[in-house]
What we know:
Blueprint: H1 3-14, H2 16-19, H3 22-33, H4 38-50, H5 60-85, H6 88-95, H7 100-129, H8 131-152, H9 158-188, H10 196-230, H11 233-253, H12 267-280, E1 295-296, H13 299-302, E2 326-327, H14 329-333, H15 345-363, H16 365-372, H17 377-383, E3 385-386, E4 388-389, E5 392-393, H18 401-426, H19 434-465, E6 476-479, H20 484-508, H21 514-542, H22 556-580
Parallel strand pairs: 3-6
Antiparallel strand pairs: 1-2, 4-5
Helix pairs in contact: 1-3, 1-4, 3-11, 5-9, 5-10, 5-11, 6-7, 7-8, 7-9, 7-21, 8-9, 8-11, 9-21, 10-11, 10-18, 10-20, 16-21, 16-22, 18-20, 19-20, 19-22, 20-21
Main location: membrane
GO molecular function, one term: transmembrane transporter activity
Subcellular location: Membrane
Amino acid sequence: MKDSQKAPLLNSAIDGGKKGGWKPAIYIISKLCFLRQTSSLRTFLHHCVRRPLILKSLTTDDSFFTKFFSAVVEVLERLAFFGITANLIIYLTNILQDTTVTAAKEINLWSGISTFLCLFGAFMADSYLGRYQTVLLSSLVYISGLLVITLSVNVIPFQFRKPVLLLALYLVAIGQGGHRPSVQALGADQFDEKTGEDRKSKSSFFNWWFFGVCGAAAAAALAIVNIQDHVGWTVGFGIAAIAMVLSLCVFLLGQRFYWCQPLKGSPLTLVAQVFVAAARKRNLKSAADDAPQHRLFTSEEAEPAAGTRRSVVLTHQWKFLNKAAEVDEEDAQAARKNDWRLCSVTQVEEVKLLLRLVPIWLSCFMYGVALAQGTTFFVKQCSNMDTHISSFRLSPASIRVSASMMILILVPIYDRILVPALRKMTGIPAGITPLKRIGVGIVVSIVALTVAALVESRRLKIAEEYGLSHLPNATVPMRVWWIVPQYVLFAVSDVFAFIGIQEFFYDQMPEGMRSLGSVASLTLIGVGNLLSSLIISVVHHFYPQWLDNNLNQAHLDYFYLLLAGLSSVWLILYLYLSKCFVYKQNEGTHL
């Protein structure tokens, strides 16, 4: 095809946002299939990344389609992710010959780093790239990692498979780091929080978002995991890669509907400016907290044309920061505002919002540790139990589908029955406050760990009765369904705590840092995975028999009780901090 013939197709693809969102997807698929036309592909990708997206007014239909496309993109991405991670501990121990403790620590470490990369991705989306560009670039990195994982199963010599696998997993981590927070924030951005109806809808959005994610997890646990065990790892990993390619295509299909927030600059720079300005004016005297001697620098002066930023009210918490917004003589006489001496009231209050969120974030760490057990030791427990359904042997990792199915049942019940009932009693649009919702979830996670300890104690007793304690690969004559209650309880915990954390941090985060709010729940899981890896190392050092590679003579029950005890201590801390927490306030005018 001549360049003159290719140009119209290229221009049509680039202008797909104006003429129809299906054209970019068709174009990029054709280019990925026919790599001979590399110059056109490079040009197209360049224009995709550089595509200007600005804040616009959305019609109801546009808003619906944006939420729909962002939800489908996330579901396909989660299908790819769970298709890799759900059975990863079995692949590491049975195929690559890792010990159970080593595999658990490696998975926890990788999971922790993956979620912290989400924090970096959210920062880049808010500050430099924008959400559209971040999703596009991260999707390409994500797909490359999944392809390497697929090829590593058979193409790479055995001695190099684990290093190559780990390299590919961290490529996936980088891709997920940019993709996941940006897509969710893009969907949540479509709500106009000035209307009561949209405030109610936003709470439902997080519920149904999690519903879709769990649907993807269920599909991965039932289909992809069993394909990996019964057909082959190459096919199973390949399906995950295809799901991610489809996610990218769907994302491009919906580009004409996307409403993207304008970039606000580096959030960390804005935070630093407030602290520096307050420090430079530390000797500034104010007559009273309610009536400072000096005029306050308002948002209208900082951003005269701003019409989309939510208003905030000046508070007296962390009063020393208020001086950053007071105009002293030096500020008044300056020809040009010095951002490191004078900040708007809104900027000061946004920094206070961040400071208020940190203690709550810290107090939820042990919840993340509890959840980390579902992808490691729970799965290994199942591998030593009877997983047969008639003559068919179910993959141990497929038992996790019980949690996903329970969430699929509970989310509609919670959203359509429980929330309206609670709303009538409390007058709160979401039924109960997010902090109360999180607290309920943490309590249920502690109950789940206790139940897990009781079930494991029963399994060990049966193994001893049948003389199987010294046989690491022996199947204990105990049905795997005994594991289901602990997975179900963790599902209930997720419906309350995990969704509540997502809603809470998104709602309470400053507007210009909403992607960071979306990723707060992910970083909690990341810290939980890292802490889990640390706790495993410490316990294995002092009590190696608890985490013996032979689970039939180990004592995972003691380990679960230890985690339940630690979680109970952190729950007390959470209850105290949540009681003291001050929610942000809004008014109709800018300050």
